[in-house]
Every structure is written in C-alpha cells, then in structure tokens.
Amino acid sequence: MLENRDLSRRRLQADCDHCFGLCCVALPFAASADFAMDKNAGQPCPNLRPDFRCGVHSTLRQRGFRGCTVYDCFGAGQRVSQITFGGRDWRQAPESAKQMFDVFPAMRQLHELLWYLTEALTRPAASPIHAELGLALDETERLTSLDPDALLQLDVAAHRAKVNDLLLRTSELVREEARLRYKGPLKHPRKAGRGADLIGANLRGADLRCANLRGAYLIAADLRGADLRSADLIGADFRDADLSGADLTDCLFLSQAQLNAAKGDAGTRLPPTFERPAHWSASGKRG
Fold first, then answer.
1. Does the global pTM surpass 0.70?
2. d(CA 59, CA 54)
3. Which of 19, 71, 135, 232 has the fewest CB neighbours in a 10 Å radius?
C-alpha cells in the first residue's frame, strides 16, 4: 500500500555525520579537471580528518576537487557504516576495511535504484504499474539489508536491468500523460533523444518537454531558458551544462549530482525537493 510507504526520499540523501568517509576512501580518482591529485581505491584522501569529515569541504572547488562536490552516494554511506557494519568504523576494525570499501559501491547502486523507484511510485500516471514498482522497491530494500558477504556476491547489474525495465515503462506512461496536458505540438531539436551526443550543443530556449534524454551527453551544452518539464533525465550528463533560466519542474529521474555538475542561476526552476547548488549564482536557495 502506497500510504504505508515512506516516499520522501530523505533516507536516500547523504548524511556525512553518520558515515565513515567511505567516498573519501573507497573510491579512486585520477588527477584531472575534477580532482587535483591521484588516489587509489582504499586509500584515504589526505583531506580526510580523524572524525571522517573533509578538512577542506568549504573550498573543494577552489582547491581542484570539483568532483567531490558533484558526487552523491544516495545515502549508501551511512547505510554501510551504521547498519551493514553496525557502526564499527574501518579505523577501529581495520580487518573489515577492505570488505567495507568493496561493499560500498554495490550499496550505492542499490540506493540509486531506490531513489528512482521511490520517485516512480509518486507519479500518478504510473499507477498501472505501481504494484510492480512497489514489489521492486521492496526487493531492492531487502537487498540493502544483506550481510557484507551476500552483498559482495550479489549480481547488482542483473537486478538493475530488471528495475530499469520498470523505470522505462514509468517514463513512457508519465511522458505520454504529460503530452496530452501540454497545448500545441512539441518541437524537440532534431538530435535530442536517448543517448544523444549533445556535447556543447546550442539548446538555448529549446522545447524539450517530454523528451527522452536518458543517458544523453549534455556536457557544456547551452540550455539557458530551455523547457525540460516532464523530460526523462535519468543518466543524462550535465557536466558544465548551463541551466540558467531553464525549467526542470516535473522532470523525470533527476538527481542532485546532475544539478551539482551543472551551472545555473536564480531563474533555474527546480523540483521542490532539490537544493540549488552552492556554486550557482543563487547560493542556498531552493527551487
């Protein structure tokens, strides 16, 4: 029953106070425009403090760690830290460190699926498949409760494929319902579509309502004033895309990480549950 489910997604937001700095240790990164140095998987970042907080959090972008400001674990960090490993951190129990670091990416994928499934269940247009979505949500929640050994044996890719089929069906239902609501024809740019290469594209003021932009490459695209209402944005790459003045209200399957990777301003219209990134011109405001 939907009325008995927590569909707020608060539990799927990162809570660094209850995490053992897993993204700062478990994940590798290479010196690039996003990171100021190389770091191997399992190696603590030199900026990680003894209390598992970042010592340069307020100046990450200025110091060349833009990638850290974009990353989102969907709440997997606190789940692994406090539940899967019962609150015993990798410094107190170094014998469990490698296993904890190996489990974290799998848990992150499961939590990302929970993020999308939870949204799908809030969409009235997807009501014909709400029962299937609910079952998929329950199964994904069950998988997050597995012990570390079982999580490492889990075929996350196979589970993701099953969930993705439901998310595709959700997208089709929601976008079709939205097409009927919008007046007049939708005039999508010719190249806009699933997995499209739109790197650096001029999409200023473009009508992208109800577009399928799943996995589209929108790196450094000019999306100023674009209308992205009811567009499917799952997996779209918005790195350095300019969303100033764009309308993303009611878009499908958006994540905070996508917004953090983009540029925007006070005129960018966001769904109500998202934070306006601090590096945008309207720091700290909500859409």
1. yes
2. 10
3. 135
